[in-house]
Amino acid sequence: MLAAFFSLPQLPLRAITRNIVRNMTGVQAPKHPKFISVEGADIYSRSKSDGIRFRFVSYNILAQVYVKSSFFPHSPSSCLRWKARSQAILAVLKNLEADFLCLQEVDEYDSFYKGNLERCGYSSLYIQRSGQKRDGCGIFFKHENAELIIEDRIEYNDLVNSIQDDDCSCEEKSENVVTSASHDVESNKGSSPKTTLPDSGDPNDPRVRLKRDCVGIMAAFRFKKPFHHVVIVANTHLYWDPEWADVKLAQAKYLLSRLARFKTLVSEKFECTPSILLAGDFNSTPGDKVYQYLISGKSSSGFSPECLEELPLPLSSVYATTLGREPSFTNFTPGFTGTLDYIFFSPSDSIRPISFLELPESECPEVIGGLPNFSYPSDHLPIGADFEITME
Q1: Where's the Endonuclease/exonuclease/phosphatase domain (predicted)?
Q2: What pLDDT is stored for residue 204 in this prediction?
């Protein structure tokens, strides 16, 4: 192992450069993961396709407002400082060379990310969390390849208005949100050391329970070449608390209902059949009720937002489709290690993932001890895929 490490000719140029930077500065450059072809070969070595190929990445970049040494005592203090972290995150984003970046926990949008990514060829959409929260969700897209045609924003606090609507049975349905808390609590998973206590108020009041200040954003884009095709991109960050699984499920239901209506709007307005890509930090592990709902669109119980009939919106997970399973983890800290981040797509004959972004295993030296560190500037890992769209 050591012999291979010091035998520079055996290392790829990128690894040599990273080692030189570390020797000169004393700081290791961030890890640059690779995209692995689904077919087992490099996707760029195959004959050129007549379809649309694009790269899609989702990444919870860890809001700087949550970066405190008390939250991350396992992390080197120097890698937590904004000056170092911001440049490391930017380096990772540039290296991924994505056509679409769905970022969560963005809290320096105007002062850092918007301008720096504009210089890399990205336009962007952003929604800040409700209330006093400083972070939010952003969609960054290469405007050279895709044209924004319509957007919409999701405020999960709107669920409170559904509770207050006395003209339908939402009030009755909302009882599930409250009563399920004591009967349907998941195990202590999906939490994060950077989280804070819930907002003040009676947690048994559904209006308090559902007001979590979480948000999402979605937009439709038209590819410019080699042919026109519309894709809907949605990005979200669901509530964190592992003991409030009912609230997460309510948010997931609202998300899919809004996404289904947005798809109908886009289809009718632009006379097209759009593909759907949904990404984010869902604060839910594989197999739990939120995850199962997202891949099935069905749930036997729980709060139904706005008294809507459940709208079927079949989705498939990129990693489950390409790997046959979800990653071992996308969030790695001493207090919690597991998968919370996903990319879902609408399965059809016209769109398919042709590669996926590699993720480290827990035994990897660069993740042992927990994140963030000098190799990974967030406590989450970026996930991603290359997609191919063929003309129907």
Answers
A1: 58-380
A2: 87
Q: If you write DSSP's letter for every residue of 302-359 in order, what string do you get? A: S--GGGPPPPP---EEHHHHHHSS--S-SEEETTEEE--EEEEE---SSEEEEEEE--
304 vs 362: which has the higher pLDDT: 362
Coil, strand or helix: which one is 67? coil
Tell me which CATH code domain 50-162+202-299+308-389 carries: 3.60.10.10
Sign of CA dihedral 36, 39, 40, 42: negative
Q: What is the per-residue DSSP string for 143-187? A: TTTEEEEEEEEEETTHHHHHHH-TTSTHHHHTHHHHHHHHHSPPP
Return d(Cα 272, Cα 263) in angstroms, integer: 10
For the chain, what are the domain ranges?
50-162+202-299+308-389
206 vs 153, 293, 343, CA distance in Å?
Answer: 23, 21, 30
Rounded mean pLDDT, 47-67: 92
Q: Which of 302, 168, 197, 308 is nearest to 247 (CA)?
A: 302
Give the pTM: 0.85
Q: What is the 3-state secondary structure (H, E, C) of 43-54?
A: HHHCCCCCCEEE
Q: pLDDT tens across 271-322, in order?
A: 999 999 999 999 999 999 999 999 987 765 555 555 444 556 889 999 999 9
Distance CA 174, CA 207 (A): 9
Geometric angle at alpha carbon 56, from 51 and 60, rounded to 5°: 175
Report pLDDT for 252.
Answer: 97
